[in-house]
């Protein structure tokens, strides 16, 4: 592969996804490789939010629960996400945060498998997933224990007939390593365990086939590759075969079979609605809807193909242009095992990332030593990758990252 | 009391809260008596949301967690609510929905009182509160039972030494009846029980003194009298003496003592932060902030005084103008025992309310036979009350409510 900027420009010029870039609001000069943390804003969000605030809230007020379809939003947004994760429209709802949705499905899963006490996960899983298991286990008080594997390839040997639930994040938040969803789900089922998948770093980044894998439960995030806005509500998937039997303890009125009957006894909806709890944050839900509309026009297979190319190009360029500066690839080299991000370890990862950000190349730092770069094919091109690596190379060669201002940690890093 | 429109106009003209009405976006002709369900929009929300969307999200992207203070929002907004409920700034956070926050505090409460199994509440409580107890009890599996009183005055006799928690909504959502917070909290404590108050229909409507009553926990809603916008996130109060010992099972990363250390083990914050869970819905939180700013300029005692006058005026007018049409006051007649709403029973409550709404007098219906009218003193005046009753009287006298179109129930009623 010829590595130069002309080549990158040529690749951008024949990129079938190139047309979508201008639909996102990104200021000139910014190379935003942090869409895996917070996606940028789709231009259509402006008008939609304006309409929600002025027409729906200010003008129509309470009537908008019916007339503007606020009440149907959890299912309507879920239906838009469904094709991206291999689910049917009625099997996904958008509601609450990923952490809370994880609690719901974990609680449902351990009740469906009452004789077993082990929950398998990874020590390197996103911490909140592990925290939710801790909280759940302590509260349930039935001796559930977390069995954490240290290497992703050790999942198989951790699954035995004591395992109630296997809970894994499909794409690791730090390394981008991908688990084999179909294979692990099959192994877990053969051992009598249920499987919960966290799709935070998968949805909108690569094809996912929950139904094809016969997965039991999944949760995921909408503010990363789905560009739903800061803290946009998360989603829950429940396999149709489980929807009438899975019981979750956060049984609020939106999960009732007849929420407006105001019955003092809870009767769960016989649908995915039983995974809803309280009143949804309508403004945050509303910003997500136009952001999801783009997926009517975009093939997730094309996203994946370009994502692989961007990541391979980035790795090749970094290893060529930044050799000898102590960078070590922390992501799998094999594209088939890697999501839409590339992570490098560096002794001074924090300062180097701060220096990059100061020059408008935005990735992020993950403790203790990871620089993480996300490649969202909807708005990132090959020239972006080229320029990002040129900047990284210059920062390393000039020692610019040693500047005092890049050493100070902010509250949220 | 002389009851005529001139009198109402005079009362509006010398109303010290009259100046605030124009700060709310309410279309001409609308008499909005449903702010106890969804408050209207404060004019400052427009500009603030525009800035959040354009400057914070679209332009500054991920940096806004620090630079725009997104990360501090749960505590910052909680501090603004604190003076309205008799709490210190560090004892309240805004997060999640009321239902979910109720689960957190109930779970914490039953763990603090492990030898007892009874949770006292009211059959007429807002149903989601009871549903959350059901979900919690079933999941905990320790035999917790709900002891429901049928009459609000029966709280005292329901409290004995088997009671772990007394969970009450301060102002009843249907009747507006107010519980004596200080008295009930004292009785519960004397019996060794903890108390959880739901302030959904209290906050911003009447003074609340949680610290003065020595309450243990409280939750509340921000989209009613606080005008935070549809589905705006709720709040949680935890007494300072309980903050380091209360443990709640929804232990997500925002509740960790060091969320960005990405430690695989959960260590709860030693503050109210431990009642946070996942990433907050920033856009919905943002709309709430300017809505709360008005309380810097408004005295809750003045709100209460006007609220009592508005409600008394409404009751007197209805009983004078609509006598003989089968309306029965469902709220306490004694203002000291009534929140900022008035409810009337009527055999055809649904149709009469629909007819009122069709003529721009907006209250709401609560099954099976309640017409509910909320009086928010920030934007409702005496002429509004007069005109609302005139419309109601006309609808009853003309039988306009018998029209077919007022009989059909919508999905969300």
TrEMBL record, chains A, B:
Q: Which annotated residues bind pyridoxal 5'-phosphate?
A: 98-99, 126-129, 169, 198, 201, 223, 253, 279
A Pfam family name for this chain?
A: KYNU_C
Its family? Belongs to the trans-sulfuration enzymes family. Belongs to the kynureninase family.
N6-(pyridoxal phosphate)lysine modification, residue list: 224
An individual GO BP term:
anthranilate metabolic process
Matching PANTHER family: KYNURENINASE
Q: Does the keyword Ligase apply?
A: no
Q: List, alphabetically, the HAMAP family matched.
A: Kynureninase
The record's gene field reads kynU
* Listed GO MF terms: kynureninase activity; pyridoxal phosphate binding
Please give the coiled-coil regions recorded for this protein. Answer: none
Its UniProt pathway annotation is: Cofactor biosynthesis; NAD(+) biosynthesis; quinolinate from L-kynurenine: step 2/3; Amino-acid degradation; L-kynurenine degradation; L-alanine and anthranilate from L-kynurenine: step 1/1
Q: How does it assemble?
A: Homodimer.
Q: What is the lineage of its organism?
A: Bacteria, Pseudomonadati, Pseudomonadota, Alphaproteobacteria, Hyphomicrobiales
Q: What is this protein called?
A: Kynureninase
Q: Which SUPFAM superfamilies does UniProt cross-reference here?
A: PLP-dependent transferases
Q: Which UniProt keywords apply?
A: Hydrolase, Pyridine nucleotide biosynthesis, Pyridoxal phosphate
Give me the segments passing through the membrane. none
Query: What EC number is given for this enzyme?
Result: 3.7.1.3
Function in brief: Catalyzes the cleavage of L-kynurenine (L-Kyn) and L-3-hydroxykynurenine (L-3OHKyn) into anthranilic acid (AA) and 3-hydroxyanthranilic acid (3-OHAA), respectively.
Which reaction is this enzyme known to catalyze?
A: L-kynurenine + H2O = anthranilate + L-alanine + H(+); 3-hydroxy-L-kynurenine + H2O = 3-hydroxyanthranilate + L-alanine + H(+)
GO CC terms on record? cytoplasm
Q: Which cofactor does it need?
A: pyridoxal 5'-phosphate
